[in-house]
## 1
Amino acid sequence: MKFVYDFTEGNKDLKDLLGGKGANLAEMTRLGLPVPPGFTITTDACRAFLLTGDEPDTLHDEVSAHLDALERRMGRRLGQGDDPLLVSVRSGAKFSMPGMMDTVLNIGLTDESVGALAAQAGDERFAWDSYRRLIQMFGRTVLGIDGGLFEDRIDEARRTAGVATDVELTADRLRALVAEFKEIVVAATGRGFPQDPREQMDLAVRAVFASWNGERARLYRRQERIPNDLGTAVSVCAMVFGNLGPDSGTGVAFTRDPASGHQGVYGDYLANAQGEDVVAGIRNTVPLAELERLDAASYAELLRIMEVLENHYLDLCDIEFTIERGKLWMLQTRVGKRTAAAAFRIAVQLLDQGLIDEREALRRVTGGQLAQLMFPRFSTESEHTPIGTGIAASPGAASGAAVFDSATAVARAAAGERVILVRRETNPDDLDGMIAAQGILTSRGGKTSHAAVVARGMGKTCVCGAEELQVDVAARRLTTADGTVIGEGDVLSIDGASGRVYAGEVPVVPSSVVEYFEGTAAPDADDLVAAVHRLMTLADRERHLGVRANADTAEDAARARRFGGEGVGLCRTEHMFLGDRRELVERLILADGEAEREAALDALLPLQRGDFTELFEAMDGLPVTVRLLDPPLHEFLPDLTDLSVRVALEHDERDTRLLTAVRRLHEQNPMLGLRGVRLGLVVPGLFTMQVRAIAEAAAARRAAGGNPRPEIMIPLVGTVQELEIVRDEAEAVIADVERVTGAALSIPLGTMIELPRAALTAGQIAGSADFFSFGTNDLTQTVWGFSRDDVEASFFTAYLEKGIFGVSPFETIDADGVGSLVRAAVTAGRAARPDLKLGVCGEHGGDPESVHFFHEVGLDYVSCSPFRIPVARLEAGRAATAGATTTP
Amino acid sequence: MKFVYDFTEGNKDLKDLLGGKGANLAEMTRLGLPVPPGFTITTDACRAFLLTGDEPDTLHDEVSAHLDALERRMGRRLGQGDDPLLVSVRSGAKFSMPGMMDTVLNIGLTDESVGALAAQAGDERFAWDSYRRLIQMFGRTVLGIDGGLFEDRIDEARRTAGVATDVELTADRLRALVAEFKEIVVAATGRGFPQDPREQMDLAVRAVFASWNGERARLYRRQERIPNDLGTAVSVCAMVFGNLGPDSGTGVAFTRDPASGHQGVYGDYLANAQGEDVVAGIRNTVPLAELERLDAASYAELLRIMEVLENHYLDLCDIEFTIERGKLWMLQTRVGKRTAAAAFRIAVQLLDQGLIDEREALRRVTGGQLAQLMFPRFSTESEHTPIGTGIAASPGAASGAAVFDSATAVARAAAGERVILVRRETNPDDLDGMIAAQGILTSRGGKTSHAAVVARGMGKTCVCGAEELQVDVAARRLTTADGTVIGEGDVLSIDGASGRVYAGEVPVVPSSVVEYFEGTAAPDADDLVAAVHRLMTLADRERHLGVRANADTAEDAARARRFGGEGVGLCRTEHMFLGDRRELVERLILADGEAEREAALDALLPLQRGDFTELFEAMDGLPVTVRLLDPPLHEFLPDLTDLSVRVALEHDERDTRLLTAVRRLHEQNPMLGLRGVRLGLVVPGLFTMQVRAIAEAAAARRAAGGNPRPEIMIPLVGTVQELEIVRDEAEAVIADVERVTGAALSIPLGTMIELPRAALTAGQIAGSADFFSFGTNDLTQTVWGFSRDDVEASFFTAYLEKGIFGVSPFETIDADGVGSLVRAAVTAGRAARPDLKLGVCGEHGGDPESVHFFHEVGLDYVSCSPFRIPVARLEAGRAATAGATTTP
């Protein structure tokens, strides 16, 4: 087996073997671009090392052969002679992965070669600084020494020298530091810093291999579901130096603006510096265009290379380069990250340029990006200066009065005020406050913190982990890095897309993309809208999946239609039992005997009929799937504990009577209780009242010249017998309405598949169902055995942090568990009934990755909230375009 | 296709085609026994009729041919001539089925043939009574006329004649009744009673076919899971008459005593009567032995036939026969029902006689019968006279003071009194009272009524539907048929095995079978115990499944061992957190910071260690599977509502603090919340404390010379990552204990499979598990999406009544749903890890039908409550004996 590839041997399609970095270095070499020579040790070698704890037998010789070749080509020897060759050792897995060892520069420097480097570079300080950096970086990452030990000595050296920055330390100071660093190495490892250049290199390679199984890397892989057995490659590359004087420098460049997508020259340049310095931000970079003035030849060469790369990769590339004494070297390239708006613009530009075809254009944008473009944003954000920046945890833009505890949030919100809940971190006790607030800001915690997870679940704007902001809950104030104090009631604005936090109110404007979907902006309103319009049109043409809306009212249905919804996939009738009608529902529940119960149902009938008539009118000509009442009855009554306390204190007679009913209906686990079809089978007349309302509404619409297309859906079916009984009753009612009105109503009757048992016996159930709609919310709850309400706040945070979940299974369908049931039910259902219509109406219907799953298992449609319809349309189109993934 | 079989053509193995009745009539004919000639129309004909609504084309001619043959053999014509042939038409499906039309006798009688019959029999009254019976029976069952219309006329005739019974009605009165009956037929159907004998027969056959889809028959099939497409056969048989004088008669006989199983002559005889009269109970039967005196020849012939039948069927047979003027005719035989004790005795007797082999003997008894033998019974029942009899709904024997409402039951039980809850019927509001009572008695409802279902779920004695008892809840009294009044506080005794109800206390004695299992009675204590011992020994030799116990204490473990348990399959540690230790648990839950939490855990550690040490001692040498803490923490705290009310009224400071914790831990659906492995991952130190206690207890036992074999089981795992983390922690703790104590502990670590997701991803989970134990209680809850506590009381009754369930899925495993997941998990788990140990510890582990299922899917063991161990052993042995079913 071949374990080492010269840069001249590989290419960009060998990412599995050479990692992303190595494959792209090889590709650039192959294109004849100026890449410093080097070679890549393959992931095969890493896997062999991880398995056995040792490098493969042949690796050492193979590396020697490649190193020899490199030395011959460069005319220099690694760490030896008058002009010693130095190399960098860089990790590079197939997927970029935080937590793995990254890079060791300057390998080859020793007590001996440091002098040669100084002489060769004509710069004593540069050579000792390079050696200091090597020992520090090698000590920390290869030898595992606490980095703070080195930092402390540098601090001390600066103090002693009376200077502010490392750059001001003299060569002598640096030489002394090297001596101290070497003592640290001896103290920590029991032996001296390796003086054999080849040993330095071998140890660094081995450390990269071992870092694959570092704790953070493993956690990251668990979260991102990256297989554990890929391993990482290691690239060994001849060093070039951007810090050899004013004719040297280093920079990053993009072939297009990654923020807007517009074409042009974008990037930053720092003269007389190494890449490390750019990252450290000690000196300010200049815009890349400045390079033209500093070094016109290198600039022209860079522009030429950027064009070569973009035409070769057919996409925005980002590039790292170094100029060593007037000679341009390419250190890295990859397809560059970009903002959502840029992604849409670039895809359409490349399509217009004829560089990519339409399906490829669809692959270049994601539903996640489209969703970002649909959030409102701050209109004048550029005019404001953020007081801090945190993690963009849940998108949107929100302004409101700062409050520092849940109770205050609830109280002020109840008084009509818009509030932002500010906490160091949140916990389950903050839930009420989070619900009441416009947005949530925390100073601690990452993307998987409680605040972030819960806010995303609620669709609420959240910035978390804004560590430069000091939150003092007791004193009810927030202090910024520059000492500005925001007290309770002061207005804050937070941007959930960028993570920025502003003092005062920043006006919010709606998204132009939403205005386009709403029909209030033309498809060519601006170039972003035009790009979105173009790609949505392509997606609609490609997709096999229909897209319907979860909509309970005529207003929602009308919006869904504007957003491209092709019907209602889920109308939840329970919402029609709330508000003014609560009293009727209470009468139904408290009914003493059949007559009272029927009177309550009779009173509800015309109200329900009215609801459905409006809904069918809004969706005229398109299917409307109405789910019969799902939740348990006690949801329509007061809370048991609250009412018990009230009765104990006030002894009100009506309350006491109510309490008896609440107690009777009380369930330990209402999610697993008397609800859905069970309720329909136990409460006589309830479902038939609803069926009658639907049928009469359809007949009324028909009489008015409309084209109503209702479909009736039975919730929570576990066994076909339940469905058979309800179906018989419903058919009798529909036949009765047809007889009375003379209308020929053809109303399909189907069922939710939202219990494991329904999925497991789908073949039987299909015998009595015209359609299935997968209720993946409930299915996720029962397959995992946890209720969303109870657990998102309690242990999901810990689970995400421990990497047990990569993403909440309520956000993206759990393909291994829940998904396998869906797949089996689709197969069994279609086998039993080839014309069975299949859809999904859980919230997963609007989630990009889940949409791909539903496409793949062959559903007919997804149904989601009206606002998610464009995302679902786009992803459904992308799913039909082979090779599109949901991550950019 | 052949649709009609002469009795001479069929045999007992053709039950699918000829039904049970037809097949056995053919078998007796084949054996040369005196069966009246006849033929059977097949289930194929019935299925064709049900499918098309018409008899198959060829059926009429085929019936004609067989009828001709019958007439030729008898030398008589159906309903014609001087000596008209009469026939009976009887339904007979593969399984006996209430709700189907049963029998029409005397077909062939018309206005004309009634006279010939009178002349031939020499008995005018007999002829007119037979005709009256035909019109009445035919009118009701074939023509669907309300039977009350006929009864009313008979009542009136009796009144007019001034007689008490039908038998006293004269021939003239009966002739007049026939005229009136014929008028009823005309009024109800618009045409006269058919005078064509063949038409009578054809209509009766068609009515039998149609009765297959009668409402009650369909309900019964749904409940008993009998396929809907079997259809019924119809037997047409020449009539013989037992009511032609003192030398005629009718009777039933058993080849052994169905009550005790003892050999001898058992049965009843009624001279000068038809079968109908025996059922109606108008005259008292005499013991069968009396027949010897009345008709020695027939008696001898009957004994000979009984011996033939028993030697042929190799089992207890029950027989219906008629003697017509000194000639014995066999009308029916089948393998007879018997009591549990009889089943055991008979199986061993037949085995001893060499009639059946050992595996067949095992097939002849069931775990359900064994369970009946293990309930305590009334010692002197025979000395008491029941005041009423109801349905034996839930076995056992109970005595106590009669109470008529739940609150009184709770109050009296709390005061230490034993009570029997008496209600017309129960509903969910009676739950507390049912829990408090020794037994439940209702006057309404059947085996699927609320009282029956809930009592069986609780394992509580219950007699329901004792309709002769009048329950007046308002007046707090029960009135028997003879007017005896039982008031509140008066002692009642109920026998859940027989359904009998007694006034006063009947002493209860333990079962001798239980004494045998306990070791306090010798294996030959009595002939029943000897039979049980013999068959248990056979079962243990045959079975592949191991049988363990669900036992939480050393006492339970010791009993389990006596009952034949081969280890503990489930030790629930939550019980160890109750009682005196509640306070420590409260400290753990209310802990403010790590130190307090650790202090609470440290205090619990030695207590847990002590528990385990005792348990391992009791099960020395056998495996003990300990499940780490499963329930949510709030189960160890007071109820939220109760505490809220108390705090609102009393403002106690400690309570207020407690309320905060209860609120924090409160979950809407605790079953779907923070429990099991989730709790272990979120509460630091909890699981490791338990693991340490187990390991230290094992080390202590090892040091004391014992052989502890603990296994640690992680509850509620949904994904392998959870298991991996807990496993890593547990292994570290065990290694630490090994290091400290020097004991080499080899403790397998496994998981419950009790969530659908665990079953669906069993292949992954097996990678980190040494064993699986299927938790089929929770699996049933999540697969069906209902919680046992909530739904058994609310909708299970309705579901059983509507036939949605045949049996509660918590009693017998739902093979189609839950079972399919178990099967898939077994396959995937073993594929991933061939040495994976597989067991089940849900309550299904002791249910006969479920044990067969677990045997069939290939588990290694079942675990059940100690008391169910003998049942599981027996059924495991029977399951290994091909062809054994769980119903007798």
Note: Residues 594-618 of chain A form the longest helix (25 residues).
## 2
Amino acid sequence: MASIGNPKPSPFIPAFFALFLLLSCPAIPAAARTRRVRSLKPCEELAFFFHDIIYDGTNAKNATSAIVAAPAGGDKIKLDGLNHFGDLAVFDDPITLDNNLHSKPVGRAQGFYFYDKKEIFTAWLGFSFVFNSTEHRGSINFAGADPLMNKTRDISVIGGTGDFFMARGVATLTTDAFEGEVYFRLRVDIKLYECW
Amino acid sequence: MASIGNPKPSPFIPAFFALFLLLSCPAIPAAARTRRVRSLKPCEELAFFFHDIIYDGTNAKNATSAIVAAPAGGDKIKLDGLNHFGDLAVFDDPITLDNNLHSKPVGRAQGFYFYDKKEIFTAWLGFSFVFNSTEHRGSINFAGADPLMNKTRDISVIGGTGDFFMARGVATLTTDAFEGEVYFRLRVDIKLYECW
Amino acid sequence: MASIGNPKPSPFIPAFFALFLLLSCPAIPAAARTRRVRSLKPCEELAFFFHDIIYDGTNAKNATSAIVAAPAGGDKIKLDGLNHFGDLAVFDDPITLDNNLHSKPVGRAQGFYFYDKKEIFTAWLGFSFVFNSTEHRGSINFAGADPLMNKTRDISVIGGTGDFFMARGVATLTTDAFEGEVYFRLRVDIKLYECW
């Protein structure tokens, strides 16, 4: 480390100094010193796209999500009126590194979302990115509100496993594209602020 | 900071001391020193009310939540027997600073809950407080069990964004009032123990 | 703050040293020093079993969970085809210390899961362990993907209350047993890496 050359004020000083280095933070557990980082700058940044194809009664083969709950009167085939308020969908969407639905998936986005406002489109999401490739192994877990008419919206990274063990952070969602009410593509910019 | 007035014991001491201040915790990353606080006392305390008006087939205009899933046989208009076991509702409830439903909302509580016990009323909640006012901008994300017959129950603050970036803590729920099975009001006392 | 006035070089050294012990980490909040532990080794390890008996139209008395949502066409009595894709169940399952369904429960596992892949069985879970016994009081909250054909899978401990105040960690799930599509038993090995 830095040299602390001190023009000999008296001989005891160097030993004295070494003692301080050892003892000066006695109550911080040793393990805390070995954690990779905990910072105000992200300790890891990742960007992905995922692709949601909602089952509409005709696309069973290609669909990656399905409406499984809806308010009284909803038919679960098409998203309901009132800005889809109450429609809840379960998904298993491919994750890609670029915005091409047909790129080789690097993982799956698995979870659920529901529309939760009558006046405009807003949603709430709980899902995981599940990776099992040479590049990434493990999962990242997300939860939060998605006011999807906003250009970007932030949700929480609430945990992770494997390569993302104990991760915490914030993910910024952007709607990258959509086609009617059947396909949409989200860009997810993940910034982790706790990495172990 | 504190003045370190030093009645010259010998000239090297002040420099020596300054060096220790810089070097005495060499393994704690610099960024950790700038985090606002991480403590056993809350670093931030907030209290809000939110108001849930369940759709009952007649109140479409005023309702802020709707049952969207129920066990086989449930009709999603009224909460089912067996202590509503299995009824899942999606909500977009106004948040107020006091217990008056008609006070100006300071944000929205958006998420879902479901009743999950046959013998008594208990629920499980996943939701966000979404703020977009001069006072607060951002979101707080919550999850946890709500044994709602208890006077108070604790759930987890699992993350936050914006003003509540990376927040973690505990929120204490109290049922402040209810009217039949259509309206209830929760008081939420939030204590954050991780603030960035 | 503390006065650090320090007269004359020789006899002051021991006092000086003691002062450094107190003051040498001025930017680490005092409270941080009293946290129990934050480590790369678990600060707490727990193992439990929980038992899920799915309502199948005939077992209302014994069932601990019920399908409450399903894609269009699903009947919520039996798990649907396509690997149950989209079936969402709510549960209130007994937690036991051993693998015997009839052992005295030490708590309840309350939450929801849904099947989320058409090609194989995978699920996603959000739930709490709720304890109210002499041994444990409080809750542990979990979320994450459960690729249940794998022998073990990791989900996140996203928070806790009471005895598990502010807990974070990883839980490893193992399917310990199952009977048809009505009963399954999960072993949960919890490792907490943040304890307060």
Note: Residues 1-37 of chain C have pLDDT under 50 and may be disordered.
